[in-house]
Amino acid sequence: MPSADLGAATPDGRAAVTIETVLDAALTLFAERGYHGTALSEIAEALGIRTPSLYNHMQSKQQLLETIVRRTLDDVLVDFETAVAGFDDPVEQLRSATRVYALRHATHRREALVVNRDTTSLPEPQLTTMRERRRDHERAIRTIITQGAERGQFNVGNAGLASFAILEMSVSIARWFREDGPLTAEQVADEYADFALRIVRYRP
Amino acid sequence: MPSADLGAATPDGRAAVTIETVLDAALTLFAERGYHGTALSEIAEALGIRTPSLYNHMQSKQQLLETIVRRTLDDVLVDFETAVAGFDDPVEQLRSATRVYALRHATHRREALVVNRDTTSLPEPQLTTMRERRRDHERAIRTIITQGAERGQFNVGNAGLASFAILEMSVSIARWFREDGPLTAEQVADEYADFALRIVRYRP
DNA sequence: CCTACCGATCGGTAGG
DNA sequence: CCTACCGATCGGTAGG
């Protein structure tokens, strides 16, 4: 009987190993122990296979990290564009962007931990590419803040500082959020969106 | 002639290697590449000696990490107590605590990066000890916020959420701050102290 | 998917 | 402080 989540199962009942199950196991272990703290043998063991068998699905350990980081940053970008697209008002843009960003970091904790901890382990030129993508995101938030300030909706001394504060407090949700905690991801995200508007001194 | 910073120099002019110079080199490299991404041979090379000579000054690689993390958390605790001691008013306590915490993360970037990235690489029971120390700090900030709320100075739905946001945005200063950037550490710290008071909705 | 195996490097020790 | 060396483990390959 095939597994609903991860595709076909082998006759003995174990889930079939694919590049996606390899990436998922790598994601869990990289998030727990870091890229350099994780051995391929541990990823293989989590999947119930031997280390060399991993190479039927991947090219190298480094490529696993690269794929995880690239996909995560792509998803964040799509999230951001979707969140902002519906609004012209910088107030609603900042609220929506922060809400979605915070929500993502509560619901995709492993991805956030790996990106934040291990991106620097990527070789050039990927490292530069990934850093530029993050910088673009920071600039996009900064632009929203600047526009709100120009319209007199926000009152903030340094838009860059505020955008760093907003992004980094949201990223850090991945460090402490628990699914079985007192607050849902949505509740945290709504509160953080309010925090963001307070940081830029929004006065309704 | 002896070096003013790190003690005596050897006759050939190189700085003498001590446990402190070993820790400093380890701090730089751990911050750059992570604990598991740094080889003892690299620390030795930075000091101009061979790997086995490191063992004249230390017991193990793990002990280097442990010392760095313990000292850093101790320093943060002292900072916090000093910052809060002079004030009875929760407003001034939160402002001072955030200012000092932000300042430390701008001026001690390496320490912050290592603690945040590699504490989880410590063995038990040190790992639990270090985690408890961080939790105590979070609780102390939370208590200040709760007291301010009880006095009607702050208006915040969830004190724990606000304390996480304030601490984590401050910690992340270590991720982006540059000494040669447009803002001094003091300017950043003052702004972040204001951010903290806005997050808890302080109304003068 | 496996067993068998590779060179390189790791943290650390012996002995001076 | 060094050279010489250790067992263990790493990511990865050969070959089936």
Structure overview:
2 copies of one chain form a homodimer. With 204 residues, chain A is mainly α. The first copy, chain A, has 2 domains: 1-59, Arc Repressor Mutant, subunit A (Orthogonal Bundle), CATH 1.10.10; 62-199, Orthogonal Bundle (Tetracycline Repressor, domain 2). Chain A is 65% helix and 0% strand. The longest helix of chain A has 25 residues, at 61-85. The model of chain A is unreliable at 1-6 (pLDDT under 50). The A-B interface holds A 32-37, 117-118, 120-121, 157-158, 161-162, 164-166, 168-169, 171-173, 175-176, 183, 188, 191-192, 195, 198-199, 201 and B 32-37, 117-118, 120-121, 157-158, 161-162, 164-166, 168-169, 171-173, 175-176, 183, 188, 191-192, 195, 198-199, 201. Chain B binds a DNA duplex (16 and 16 nucleotides) through loops.
Short structural summary:
The structure is a homodimer of 204-residue chains. The first copy, chain A, contains 9 helices and no strands.
Radius of gyration of chain A, rounded? Answer: 20 Å
Pick out the low-confidence regions of chain A: 1-6
Encode the helix/strand succession of chain A as letters.
Answer: HHHHHHHHH
Oligomer: homodimer
Indicate the topology.
Two copies of one chain form a homodimer.
Chain A: H1 19-33, H2 40-47, H3 61-85, H4 90-107, H5 109-118, H6 126-150, H7 159-171, H8 173-176, H9 185-199
Helix pairs in contact in A: 1-2, 1-3, 1-5, 3-4, 3-5, 3-6, 4-6, 4-7, 4-9, 6-7, 7-9
Chain B binds a DNA duplex (16 and 16 nucleotides) through loops.
Keyword list:
disordered N terminus, homodimer, 2 domains, DNA-binding, elongated, about 200 residues, mainly alpha, 9 helices, Arc Repressor Mutant, subunit A, Tetracycline Repressor, domain 2
